[in-house]
Each structure stands twice: as C-alpha cells, then as structure tokens.
Amino acid sequence: MPTVELLFSAQPEHVRTARLVAAAVARRAGVDEAALDEVRLAVGEACSRAVGLHRSNGVEAPVRVMLNEDEKKFSIEVADEVPGNASGGSPDAGADEAADDEGEMGLAVISGLVDDVEVIEGAAGGTIRMSWPTTTA
Amino acid sequence: MDLSLSTRTVGDRTIVEVGGEIDVYTAPKLREQLVELVNDGSYHLVVDMEGVDFLDSTGLGVLVGGLKRVRAHEGSLRLVCNQERILKIFRITGLTKVFPIHTSVDEAVAATD
What are the boundaries of the region Disordered (chain A) (predicted)? Predict the structure, then answer.
C-alpha cells in the first residue's frame, strides 16, 4: 500500500492540490529541500498530462497519484486510465492535438528534470513513475 | 495561490506583470490576456515574471503562443526573470534560445535587438 494515495477528478484546478500533497509527503520522506521544486513540477506535469488525456478521451474516472516512501527513495506514480498513448496513437487521433502537444512538452520537462523516470503503458492506461533519493537524518 | 495579471504601457511596450502560479488551471487566463493585447494592437510585450511562484509546460506553451502571435505582426515578446527555479524550466526545454530573457523591466524596455 502506498504511503499516501490521492484520487482526484480530472479537472485542472485539482492539479495544484496534487503538487502540494506530493511536495509535503516528499519533504517528510527526506527528499532534499533543493529537489522539492523538481518534485512539485514533475508531479504537476504528470498530473496535467493525465487530466488532459482523461478529458480529451472522455474518461470520467479519477486520476490516481501514489506516493511511496521507502528507505532509500521516494517514488511517485501518476496513473491515467487512457490506454495506448506512449506511441502517440491516440484512439481518436487528431481530436485534441493541442492537448497532446502539451502532454508531450510535459513529458519533455519531466525527463529533463528527473533522473529516474519511467513511462509505462498498459492495457488499462499509462503510468509515469518517478523517484528521488532520500536522506535520512 | 491564483494567478494575478496587470498591464501597463511604457512607450511602445506593454508590460504584463504576472504573479502567482501559471499551470494547467491558470494558464488559459494568461493566454486570454496575451491574445487580447495582440488583438488590441499591442505587439511589443514584456512579460514580467518576477512574481511568478510556479510555471509548468502549459505556461510555457502559452508564452510560445504569445510569441507566435506578436511575431505575426513583427512584434516582440520579452521576459523578465531572475528566479533560478523558473529559468531552469526555460533551460531544460531549450526555450532560452527562443525568448530574450532580461534581468529587469527597464532592461527589457530598452532592448531593441
């Protein structure tokens, strides 16, 4: 079970909440103070992308954020429920190109920011998994 | 914190002072503001980002969109930013090559290149 799990309806106004929660849990887990801005930004990007995917594909399910704290690292998973976006072949291609472009820019920011990042595409949807080292006092 | 926007003119430049967080929720407000300015004939924009606490790729997209619009009128869009955490986002996306970034509004207003 994740340390903290957050489910929010796919609305842009809730992305800020996800950023705040993730940063608070990351701080508690011992992520370096200097990396908290990265955590905030990366989670925001991942959640914005998921919200965009849900909205442009008419998915009403919530976006899921899992925050996991273990001994040496703090990891975050942001899961959407829109299958098959890794290849760029969205089910209704061309429906919302602007949203897709923003999602891609978001991924570019995440990969520029986070050293340990993985994008997983499954039959049920995609997951962006990221982690940061923690220092235990 | 929400987004705050205010505009003023200095000579032929329009300064857009932005404060708060620019993200997927608030970026449309900034987009509207930039579109409105360009539609009203303001083609030389200086976006002052000193009061910005957070910027994500949606915000970057809006700024790029603004740049595209002013360029269609042979205008300019300059940024004012000294905050390392914001500058970093421009750097990792390569946008420091796209936007002239200044350390003060005065410098941005005086720039002509």
Answer: 80-102
User: Do residue B23 and residue A15 have CB atoms under 8 angstroms apart?
Assistant: yes
Task: State the complex-level ipTM.
Answer: 0.88
Domain B4-108 in CATH: superfamily? STAS domain (3.30.750.24)
Per the CB < 8 Å rule, is B23 touching A51?
no
Per-residue pLDDT averaged across A97-123, rounded? 84
* Helix-strand-coil split of chain B, %, nearest 5: 40, 30, 25
| Helix (H), strand (E) at residue B90 | helix B84-92
> Measured between CB atoms, does A12 come within 8 Å of chain B?
yes
- Class of the CATH-defined domain A4-133: alpha beta
CA distance A2 to A4: 5
Q: Encode pLDDT of B5-32 as tens digits.
A: 999 999 999 999 999 999 999 999 999 9
Give the number of A-B residue pairs with CB atoms closer than 8 Å. Answer: 53
